[in-house]
Write a structure and sequence with these properties.
single chain, alpha/beta, 6 domains, 8-stranded mixed sheet
Length: 899
């Protein structure tokens, strides 16, 4: 198997992986190490040349592989060099820039302003910032958003390259610090965006000076013009315009959450992500146009390469598009020299070029998915098809011409003979005038069947080969993907070229663009309705925890060995292919089924207060594995007038990934303390993603959001139970008692209130945990009066109402007497939680304080005697994340007092 580029790319990737994750180069590579490294590289090159001269090819190959391995390590080390002194993150870390107050930022617009459903967004390359009365030079990226409302003035007319000044308070991007959660900061940092900010008024954004027109600014203006033309052509059908923005220009801003979920459920989200399908469709149309215009091969290649380069420059320049463009260019150029390039070699060359430009791209999910996809096609699907269906599909070309039979392999030649004989017999039994037409019709149907089978096999192999990464990153198994792709892929191949022809022609002749937009709209509506129809089948897809690391390694090792076997001699194919295919299917079943037990601490009670921003979510596991989720976060309500385009969903983006990271697929009970958005907003995703046994609710309230949640629970056949004061439950030695709401909770409240929160305590052995929801001083006062504070005593207190000054009042705190308190609040939230007054009360009482806005998820584990606390970020005053805090049991405290 001659795949030199694949071997080189594999060695280079292994070197980058070592450089990115090895602690030796954790902080980059010094200049002396670089010199030594490159000296070793030259030594390996000299060794390889000497081996070639001595005809020691094995030694030469080994030297070359070690050389590329070392180059990968050095590339990763160079990429991990410390930030420059004037980088904005370096300035923030050194406290030279304070992000806690509005500052005046100056920079250059990286691109044209992005029109969004709710306003406008600007990507700014920073020049500096005015802080403490002086201008501090700074570099980095700032994403500025401006939400447009009817009463607000429009944003100023700015263009790419303009130097601007804006007064705003910038922040680090929001990130949920829980196991398994998506790292949005790293995702934006890969796009050179380190800070985000909101523009409160258009008057705070000023144009300092327009920038001279450059090639980059012209491309940006062309991109903006194409988006505007799409909006004009499909102004009456915004859904179609939003999908075409994604399919043609890579702008998914106008795809709402439910629509995107349908594409994910059916396994065709790649239709919305510019990649090989889109680039390939354009390349085929350009090649066809060159042939129609009777251009010479040289001019045809020039047309294809120029058009593809312009296309990539106009749309988003991300790994899938760049990979597809580089591979298309390699194939086109190879065709000029009458060379049929190996697909895997072309992909490997593209990977090397992309990784040389940016080594950290290796750990990007997009990069991994792109090249695993092409590896599945080139390594598994095409070799298998080449030995099964493809010879017969090629035999259909000119099937009437007997002289071509000898050009095909024996089985394909025999197929052509049998085909002619069969169709001749059919036509002989038909009317004479229809004989040829019937033959052509049967041949066309047969040709379509072969192509459909090839497409089905390609999509099936892609679904299987990408399954581990899709389960790891998106936690979804799609069963309908191969079938839906039979519709989506051909339609995308038509929509993409037709869309570009319609949009570009409308720039010059509006009537032509409007005429072409009619069939384009029909095709887009058809694909949308088809996807929506398949997505509504409950069994079309399901959610799953990410596979174990050892299982992913085993899967890809078996897949690589199978790819080698499919390209080996016939003897090795007969011996190895069946066994490796069975092994791959077993690994696929383990990934898709996930028969593994969740991770929990047998014999111990644990409670994890998750970081969900400004909200609450607590996950409790009993000593025998019963699970309870209390609240689901979800404070963000969406943009003004566009709730469907809301921001992050803590249920989907924070809580579900955490549970999946621990292998949970079922939750015995989901409890809602009260019907405020920051507690129930994420629960819909939880009910959809997991098998839920019961839904507990405290006091009923007139709330549309609560009504929708209960309706969704009933649709999922989840029993709804109402809990109130005096009720209890017991789970494998864990006793729970509800203290609130009281008897008046039988009445439906007119609105949801903090003081209607579920309040209950968990007891295991001699240890207790009190969970008061958002209960404030009125509810606390009533509970104290009823219980005299005796039943409220707890070792661990989850502080009420995110640390508000109106909760955890002195009397209540004195009654509970906690040893530790945990506050769930959003980082730099606008409410000032936790309140300084509350923190002072806790400090005066000698209570150890943990906070999700500072420490991330806080996990408390007890065996009934000792307490163990760990944080996602290092806990306060502790040196490691898994540091332990051992406390005395109450019996030990009493003995100590008596002595």
């Amino acid at each position: 198997m001659k795949l030199p580029a694949v071997a080189i790319a594999a060695a280079f990737c292994c070197g980058i992986a070592l450089g990115l994750w090895a602690p030796v180069v954790h902080f980059g590579v010094s200049s002396s190490l670089l010199i030594c490294g490159f000296a070793l590289v030259f030594a390996l090159i000299a060794c390889g040349i000497a081996a070639v001269v001595a005809q020691r090819l094995v030694v030469s190959a080994v030297s070359a592989m070690f050389c590329w391995l070392l180059l990968g390590v050095l590339a990763a080390g160079i990429a991990k060099q410390p930030l420059p002194p004037d980088h904005i993150l370096r300035l923030v870390e050194e406290h030279r820039i304070d992000l806690h107050s509005p500052l005046r930022w100056r920079g250059l617009l990286r691109d044209e302003p992005s029109v969004l459903p709710w306003g406008v967004a600007y990507d700014i390359d920073l020049i500096g910032v005015e802080a403490a009365g002086e201008f501090v030079p700074a570099r980095g990226g700032l994403r500025l958003s401006y939400s447009l409302r009817p009463e607000q003035p429009a944003a100023p007319d700015l263009h790419a390259g303009d130097e601007i000044s804006v007064l705003t308070q910038a922040r680090r991007p929001q990130v949920f610090r829980n196991e398994g959660a998506f790292d949005r900061r790293a995702y934006l940092a890969a796009q050179n965006i380190e800070l985000t900010a909101s523009l409160r008024a258009a008057s705070l954004l000023d144009l300092v000076r327009p920038w001279p027109v450059t090639a980059a600014s012209l491309l940006a203006r062309l991109r903006r013009r194409l988006r505007e033309q799409l909006d004009k052509l499909f102004g009456d059908t915004p859904q179609v315009a939003g999908v075409l923005r994604a399919m043609l220009l890579g702008d998914r801003s106008f795809i709402d959450r439910d629509e995107a979920k349908d594409f994910q459920k059916t396994g065709v989200f790649h239709v919305l992500v510019l990649a090989g399908l889109h680039v390939g469709a354009l390349a085929v149309v350009l090649f066809w146009a060159g042939r129609r215009m009777r251009l010479s091969p040289g001019w045809t290649i020039l047309l294809i390469l120029t058009s593809l380069a312009l296309y990539i420059a106009v749309v988003e320049q991300r790994p899938p598009v760049l990979r597809a463009g580089l591979m298309a260019a390699a194939v086109v150029v190879g065709g000029f020299f009458y060379r049929r390039l190996e697909l895997l070699n072309s992909a490997a060359l593209a990977a090397i070029l992309l990784l040389v430009a940016r080594p950290p791209a290796l750990r990007d999910s997009s990069f991994q998915l792109s090249f695993v996809a092409i590896g599945c096609i080139g390594g598994l699907a095409l070799p298998w098809l080449a030995r099964t269906a493809q010879p017969y599909a090629r035999a259909m070309r000119g099937w009437r011409d007997v002289t071509r039979d000898a050009a095909h392999e024996p089985r394909a030649a025999q197929f052509r003979i049998d085909l002619r004989r069969s169709l001749h017999w059919i036509s002989s039994k038909s009317p004479r005038r229809l004989g040829v037409s019937i033959e052509n019709a049967f041949a066309a149907v047969l040709r379509l069947g072969f192509r459909s089978w090839e497409l089905f096999v390609l999509t099936l192999v892609l679904q299987i080969g990408m399954l581990p990464l899709m389960a790891r990153d998106f936690h979804r198994i799609t069963l309908a993907g191969p079938l839906v792709n039979l519709i989506a892929v051909p339609l995308t191949g038509l929509i993409v070229p037709l869309g570009f022809i319609a949009v570009t022609s409308s720039l010059f002749v509006a009537a032509v663009g409007r005429l072409l937009s009619v069939p384009l709209q029909w095709l887009t509506v058809f694909i949308l309705h088809s996807i929506a129809w398949f997505a509504h089948f409950p069994s079309a897809s399901y959610r799953i925890p990410g596979p174990r690391t050892w299982l992913m390694l085993a899967f890809f090792v078996v897949a690589i060995l199978l790819a080698f076997a499919l390209r080996a001699t016939a003897r090795w194919q007969r011996r190895a292919t069946p066994a490796l295919t069975c092994a791959l299917l077993v690994c696929t079943g383990l990934v898709a089924w996930f028969p593994f037990s969740p991770q929990w601490s047998p014999g111990k009670l644990e409670a994890t207060i998750l970081d969900v921003g400004q909200g609450d979510a607590i996950f409790v596991v009993s000593p025998q594995g019963q699970s309870l989720l209390i609240d689901g976060g979800g404070a963000f309500r969406g943009f003004p007038g566009h709730p469907e385009h809301g921001g992050t969903d803590p249920g989907e983006d924070a809580i579900s990934p955490y549970l999946w990271s621990r292998g949970f697929q079922k939750i015995d009970v989901v409890a809602l303390t009260h019907a405020h958005q920051d507690h129930l907003g994420g629960l819909t995703a939880i009910l959809e993603n997991f098998r839920v046994g019961r839904l507990w609710i405290g006091r009923e309230a007139i709330s549309p959001a609560l009504a929708r949640l209960e309706e969704f629970a009933r649709a999922k056949h989840i029993p709804i139970e109402h809990e109130r004061r005096g009720q209890t439950f017991s789970w494998s030695g864990t006793e729970a008692a509800f203290f609130w709401p009281g008897a008046s909770s039988d009445e439906i409240a007119s609105t949801a209130k903090n003081n209607d929160s579920l309040v209950f305590r968990l007891r295991y052995g001699n240890r207790t945990i009190l969970l008061p929801g958002d209960a404030e001083k009125d509810a606390e006062r009533t509970m104290l009066a009823d219980d005299a504070g005796e039943e409220l005593r707890a070792d661990v207190l989850k502080v009420g109402h995110h640390g508000s000054k109106n909760s955890t009042m002195p009397d209540f705190l004195a009654a509970v007497r906690p040893q530790m308190a945990i506050i769930s609040a959003g980082e730099e939230n606008p409410y000032g939680h936790p309140s300084p007054a509350l923190l002072a009360r806790l400090q005066d009482a000698g209570v150890s304080v943990y906070r999700t806005d500072r420490d991330g998820a806080v996990r408390v584990v007890t065996d009934g005697e000792s307490l163990t606390v760990s944080c996602f970020v290092a806990c306060p005053a502790l040196t490691t994340r898994e540091a332990l805090r051992q406390t005395q049991s109450p019996n030990d405290e009493q003995q100590h007092e008596q002595q």
